């Protein structure tokens, strides 16, 4: 069995989980996500935690064990905390600046790089 697949998934407060045979639907403050499960993997709720297990002990199914657990854990994180990506810009003269709905990067090229921020995405620049 997979080491990743054995780890239980804690359910934060405010998150509800509905388990069906072929998918897991997770609802939280940030929305609802439905994660289909690979065939042969079953997700169960035990003591307020989700656990992924295999229907039968088969080597061909074991490759999906950790995958299914990771996908469901990412869905739980997405509806509770949201996803976050941090970018560190290190170097003399390298900086980013937020102007309206665009981010202007100065990364050592002869021109600034302008990135349009998609709708629904929040960008924060902490320091220059």
Integer average pLDDT: 90
Shape: elongated
Encode the helix/strand succession as letters.
HEEEEEEHHEEE
**Helical proportion, percent range:** 10-25%
What's the arrangement of strands in the largest beta sheet?
A: 1-6-5
Q: Please, how many helices?
A: 3
Q: Please tell me how large the radius of gyration is.
A: 20 Å
Largest sheet: 3 strands, antiparallel
Question: In terms of structural class, how would the helical and strand content be classed?
Answer: alpha+beta
Please report which band the strand proportion falls in: under 5%, 5-15%, 15-25%, 25-35%, 35-45% or over 45%: 25-35%
The poorly predicted ranges are none
Terminal-residue CA separation: 47 Å
How many strands appear in the DSSP assignment?
Answer: 9
Jot down its keywords.
128 residues; alpha+beta; three-stranded antiparallel beta sheet
Characterization of this structure:
This protein is α+β, with helices and mostly antiparallel strands and 128 residues long. Helices cover 19% and strands 34% of the residues. It contains three helices and nine strands; from the N terminus they run αββββββααβββ. It has helices at residues 3-6, 59-62, 65-80; strands at residues 9-10, 16-19, 23-28, 31-36, 41-46, 49-54, 95-99, 102-106, 113-116. The strands form three sheets. The chain has a three-stranded antiparallel sheet with strand order 1-6-5, with helices on one face. Strands 2-3-4 form a three-stranded antiparallel sheet, covered by helices on one side. A three-stranded antiparallel sheet has the order 7-8-9, with no helix packed on it. β2 and β3 form a beta hairpin. 13% of the residues are buried.
């Amino acid at each position: 069995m997979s080491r990743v697949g054995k780890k239980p998934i804690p359910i934060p407060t405010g998150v509800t989980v509905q388990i069906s045979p072929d998918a897991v639907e997770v609802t939280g403050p940030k929305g609802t996500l439905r994660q289909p499960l690979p065939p042969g993997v079953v997700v169960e709720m035990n003591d307020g935690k989700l656990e992924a297990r295999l229907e039968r002990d088969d080597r061909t199914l074991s490759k999906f064990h950790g995958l299914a657990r990771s996908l469901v854990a990412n869905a739980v994180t997405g509806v509770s905390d949201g996803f976050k990506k941090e970018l560190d810009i290190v170097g003399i003269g390298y900086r980013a600046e937020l102007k309206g709905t665009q981010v202007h990067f100065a990364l050592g090229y002869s021109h600034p790089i302008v990135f349009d921020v998609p709708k629904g995405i929040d960008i924060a620049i902490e320091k220059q």
